[in-house]
UniProtKB/TrEMBL annotation:
<keyword id="KW-0637">Prenyltransferase</keyword>
<keyword id="KW-0677">Repeat</keyword>
<comment type="similarity">
    <text>Belongs to the protein prenyltransferase subunit alpha family.</text>
</comment>
<protein>
    <recommendedName>
        <fullName>Protein prenyltransferase alpha subunit repeat containing 1</fullName>
    </recommendedName>
</protein>
<dbReference type="GO" id="GO:0004660">
    <property type="term" value="F:protein farnesyltransferase activity"/>
</dbReference>
<dbReference type="GO" id="GO:0004662">
    <property type="term" value="F:CAAX-protein geranylgeranyltransferase activity"/>
</dbReference>
<dbReference type="Pfam" id="PF01239">
    <property type="entry name" value="PPTA"/>
</dbReference>
<dbReference type="InterPro" id="IPR002088">
    <property type="entry name" value="Prenyl_trans_a"/>
</dbReference>
<dbReference type="GO" id="GO:0005953">
    <property type="term" value="C:CAAX-protein geranylgeranyltransferase complex"/>
</dbReference>
<keyword id="KW-0808">Transferase</keyword>
<dbReference type="GO" id="GO:0005965">
    <property type="term" value="C:protein farnesyltransferase complex"/>
</dbReference>
């Protein structure tokens, strides 16, 4: 269309201007984005122009390195993202800038805090923005242990308000793994690992609270799978060196069966969320039972209170009985 052709004409003019001035001014994009709306340019067209400009700026920065220019570049990227929160080339360019800044900056924790705040703003502006959250995950190796703990606390409230957004839970999983890795590599590793285990246990408790509060949210059950997989293996390894007759793994699995039982006994609702909750709970127990032969035996033994695994799956979703039969015999 003529309007889109005109947008390309404007965009190319500003692109040439951007190259000519060395790319240090944000006025170019402050004019470009309103024009894209005025001329009804598609998202693809806008993204294409931004990608070309970003590549050009990267070449200029590579040949003319300057610390203040890199900081200006972060501000420019923030401007682009305010118009296009899911622009992959801009997020990638921002990571390239931060990587270069990390070689010269001493106050990386402050920069990371600003980046986390930016991602939060972009996630609020654009739901399910996995590009923004992936950027936040990329920052984790630059964090100290204290900052990882702070990020876990700060992201908790956001996750509670956006339980359907799996991106935030993926970020929390990355933080928890970083916490474990950091604890294993420190001199006081035993103390740090103990603290990490407490954090993991607290995450399981918090996740169960959300599952009971928000029924039928697949992201919550996916998060629980991740937590349970590592936790069960941890408990089993503890039993090998423990002199106690009490099995912590058995206790945990009993709690999970109790959660399933509560889901099965929950009253129905007009939106069908209870039915989805039951199916997700049954699939979760099936998934746990397939993780380890020893775990499978423990699960089947404790399922007697609610029925066999096949019966539970049939109650959860009878129209998928053939699928359950196939999964149980794999």
């Amino acid at each position: 269309p003529n309007s889109q052709f005109l947008f390309f004409e404007f965009s190319w003019y500003f692109f040439e201007l951007n190259v000519h001035i060395g790319g240090w001014s944000t006025q170019v994009l402050q004019i470009l984005f309103p024009i894209s709306s005025l001329y009804n340019a598609s998202y693809f067209h806008t993204r294409l122009i931004v990608t070309v400009i970003v590549l050009c700026r990267k070449m200029v920065l590579s040949t003319n390195f300057n610390l203040s220019h890199l900081k200006d570049e972060l501000r420019l990227c923030a401007l682009i993202l305010s118009y296009s929160p899911k622009n992959e080339s801009t997020w990638s360019h921002r990571r390239w800038v931060i990587k270069n800044l990390a070689q010269h900056l001493q106050d990386m924790p402050e920069l990371i805090d600003k980046e986390s705040l930016l991602v939060k703003d972009m996630a609020e502006k654009s739901k399910m923005n996995y590009r923004a959250w992936r950027h936040r995950c990329w920052l984790i190796p630059y964090m100290k242990t204290k900052q990882v703990l702070d990020e876990l606390n700060k992201s908790k409230k956001w996750a509670e308000l956006h339980v359907a957004d799996n991106c935030s839970f993926h970020y929390r999983r990355s933080l928890l793994l970083a916490l474990l890795d950091g604890a294993a590599n420190r001199e006081d590793s035993l103390i740090c690992q103990s603290e990490a285990y407490l954090m993991w246990k607290e995450e399981l408790r918090w996740n169960e609270t959300l599952i009971r509060r928000y029924q039928g949210r697949e992201s919550l059950w996916n998060h629980r799978r991740f937590l349970s997989q590592w936790w069960v293996q941890h408990l089993l390894s503890c039993e090998e060196t423990s002199l106690s007759n009490e099995s912590l793994a058995d206790l945990f699995l009993s709690q999970e069966i109790h959660l399933l039982s509560d889901c099965l006994g929950a009253p129905g609702d007009e939106f069908g969320e209870t039915r989805v909750q039951v199916e997700l709970a049954a699939l979760y127990i099936l998934w746990i039972s397939e993780q380890d032969a020893a775990v499978k035996g423990k699960v089947e033994e404790r399922l007697k209170s609610v029925g066999s695994l096949k019966e539970v799956l049939a109650r959860a979703c009878p129209e998928k009985s053939r699928l359950w039969t196939h999964l149980l015999h794999c």
